[in-house]
Structures are given as structure tokens and as C-alpha cells.
Amino acid sequence: MSTHNSSDAGSIAAGWQIGEWRVEPAVNEIRQGADTLRIEPKAMEVLIFLAGRAGHVVSRDELLSALWPGTVVGDDALSQAVIKLRKALRDPAKSPQYIETIPKRGYRLVATAKPIEVDKARLPEPSRQSDTGFPTPARARARSPRRAATVAVVLTLSVACGIVFLATRYKQELPTAEVPTMDDLLADRSAVLPTVAVMPFETEADDAEQAYLARGIAADLTTDMAAISGLRMISVSTLTGRDLQASGAKSPARYLVSGSLHRAADGLKVNVRLTDTHSGQLLWAERYQRPLRDLVVVEEEIVGRLVSVLPVKISESEKRQLAGRYTRNPEAYEYFLRGKGAFLARSQSENENAKAMYGKAIELDPSFARAYAGLAFTYTADYRNQWTTDGPRALAKAVELAKTALQIDPHLAEVYGVLGYVHSTRREHAQAVKYLHQAIVLDRSYADAYAHLGAVHTHIGQPERTVPLLRMAMRLNPDAGFIYFLVMGRAYLFQGDTEQASINLREALARNPADLETRIYTAANFVASGNLEAARWEVEEIRHLQEGFATDVWLQTSPMTDARTKQRLISLLSRVGL
Fold it and tell me: For the structural domain made of 11-176, what CATH number should be given?
């Protein structure tokens, strides 16, 4: 057993030789002969940390503090990382050759650990970037951001190895060739890919909790299937199959998933159907009657059957991704789905409900990344909508939760979506754009990411770039919520097209007449079009929604940073006393 720190000024550690394995932290790979295995980034961090102290016992608290700084995770996160390492290293826990568990103390690397050095003159200069950077698309599953506190700890363990490890993993700019262009983002693949929509499942009347659960299941099935590159998922948040049939409306997708859900004290009953809307043929139907604890398993089975019936080829990596669930705690998953359903309602009371549901999911499973991301959305909404008396605290909480989600699972599109939303709300738009691009690379059907990206362009004074992004979002989610129409209307207003702005703002109000921001932009658009009487009527509605409304106070939490755009809005509203 040994550790090694090079003192040679001309060489630097590029990896480690740990026992029989060559370890390359920069690409999260371990090699032995012809075998090359990819391991998760957090597991790699644990391995490198232990390698820096080979032969010494490292406590669980020390590992959690060093590798999960400023985040809230349970001991299970560390245990899972060690389990994954042992599996990759083929190291049996009962007779370890690599990682030994020291009961009630921690872990010890018992294998020989030696840095692999290369000539520093042959290494490229590391690029400079803030620690809020994120992995490139090609390595999105193999990297995760680190905080400055972690850097300090790693450097004290092994300066030479630490420098390269951080420089190559965390300080690298997103390669220009892999950043999607606007044309790539807006490429419509519907002509060549089968389109699928998952309708919210029908439930018993007047049961809000079951409605949240049904809405959440539909959203989660959409998220799962969006990981399949051969499908284009279309979000439909409120219509059901019965609604379409009754109205005679055309389905937004070729293939329609619909069904019903009944949750009782003793179990769960789910009926699922897959229909070809072009021919009207029922392609598949199934009835599930299981204990509540099998909710996760039921959803896995539904996705598996849908994929087997739909005309799509699925890669081995996509099969593995679908097989890996986000939590194995069925109760946590149910609370997560209910939280997601409540958040989609977009009101203050439902936001509080969603917050409670997400919080309960995290309490039951402290390593549930998607629950942290959902909770971050709720706190950001509190700040943005001024639903709290301590906005800065709410936004700081959102940042903490989003970073926790990223450190737990750095390959989820939703995590990058919330990071984009949070950074935009903090007026850090360059970072927001990068995160939202990454979300779209991971999930090309992620309608909200296109919508958020479009909103950012208006905030920075580029409303002409907003419109095509929102059109793409609306194609992916034809049953768009009021926010899509608000963002579109706002963009047209700042382009001077008051007619199109009016059309979209009316649609937003029809979906949510109590939204303050929509009323504000509607008033501004009436002023811009010369209809002062209608604008004054909107002013009364604004003051009814928020007594004592003042434009300057409202703008304090606005993400808008372009001075001309902001001044244009202030000028319009001032003409009607706002």
C-alpha cells in the first residue's frame, strides 16, 4: 500500500494506477487489459479521494463533506457510490482487494495507488470557466460540476493529480462544435420520427390528489420516453382521450397513450391504451392492479410495453437508461408525481402544495435528484412571482437545491432545465443559455427548455429570436400553458407587432386570468396600440390582483436586463399611471 505525490516540476498526474486498474478521472473510465468501464462521476470522485489517502481510513463524514459540499444528501448516496465502485472493480465486499469497509469508521483503499504522470509541456492550457460550467453533450453522463471547497480538499491530498483532475473535468469550456446552433435547435424532426402524446389519465371526479397523481404519471411517462432518440414526444397537459373523442378534435400526435387511474387504500388500478390516431386502431391495452408500492414497477412495465409496440428502434444505452429508475422508493415517487402535478397548475396555493409534496419525496429518499429539481422550481417561482416576503432567501434556496440535484445525477435534462430557469431568474443569462442548450441536447422533446430559452432572449433584448423558439415549444406541447403565450406575446410587443402580441396575450389570459404578469403586458400592449381605455381597464384588474402595485417594485424580481426593453415597458405603463 502506498501513496505518491510527484515533486518533479516537469511532470504532472494524468490518472492513477490502482491495483490492476488504470484509472482516468478526466473521462471517468477504468481500464484493465482490453476491458474499459465507464463509471459515474461521483463514484470516480470517491475513488480518487480514497486513492489520495491509500492505506488510511477515511470517515464517511469526511467523504460526504468533501465530495458533496453545501448539499443535502443522505449516507445512502455515499453507500451507493461505493457499491458501484466495488461492482466496477469486481471487488467482493467480504474479501476486498480494493475498498475495505471499516465498521463504524469509514472506508480504506487497500490496493496500491500510484499516479500516472505525463510531461506538462505536452498538456494543453486549461480553459478558464466559472465552477457553474457543465458537461459537454458527449460526456453529459460522465461529468459533474464541483464547488471551490472540494478543490481545496483535493489539492491538499494530491496537488499534482488534483490540478489535472479539476482542470480537465470542471474548467473546460463547452466545445463549440457541440453547442447546438439555432437552426439545429429548431430542426423539426416530425416528418421522419413517429410522434407520441401521453394524455393525463382519467380519475374519479372531485379527487384533487388523484388528479395530481394522474397528471404527474403522464408527465413522467413523457419524460421517460423522451430519452428515446427515435421518438418525438408531444406534451399535452390537460386534455384527455375522452375530451378529444367528445370534441372531435384532432390528436396532436400519430400515437396516443391514454388511460385511467384509481388509487385506493389497498392498491392501485391502472388501465392503459395505445391508439394509432390515423387509423383509429387500438394497438395495445393493458390493465394493472397492484399494491401501491409497485407504482414505480408499473410505470416501468408501461414504458417497456409501449416501446415494444411502437415503430421505433431502441439502442442498448437507451435500454439501460430506461431500466434505471430515479428512485426505488415507491412512496417517494408517488409524492414526486403529486408534486409535479400540483406545480403544473401554476398558482401560489398549488405551488405551496407542490413544495410540500417534493419535500416529502426528498424526506423519504434523500438522493432523489428529480425531487430536488422540482423543489428548486417552486422556490424560483416564489421569488419570480413575489409570493414570498423573503425573495432573496427563496432564490438562494432554489440555487442550493438545483446544485444538489446536479451533483446527485448530472445526466437529467430536467436538472439542466431548472438550472437554466434559476440562472435566468438571477439575471445570469449566459449561464442560463448554456444550461438550457444542454437540456435540449439531452431531451430534444423538452418543450419547457425551448420556452425558457425563448424567454431569455427577450430578457436580453433579442425578442426576434424568441418567436421561433416558442413556436417549437408549442409544436412539442400543443396544449401549451398560459406561460408559452405570455412569452410569445411579450416578444411580439417588443418587436412592435401589437396585433400578434394581442392574440397571444388573450390566449394567455384565457388560460390564467389571475396571472399578474400577463395583465401587465396586456396593459402595455393596449397602450402601444393606442387603446388607452382598454389599458386603464387592465390597470384596475392589476390593482385588484395586487393592491398598491408599483412597476418599479415589480421589476425588482424581473429577469429583464436589456435597458432599452425595460425602459420601453416603463414608458408604456407610466402612460396609464403604473
Answer: 1.10.10.10
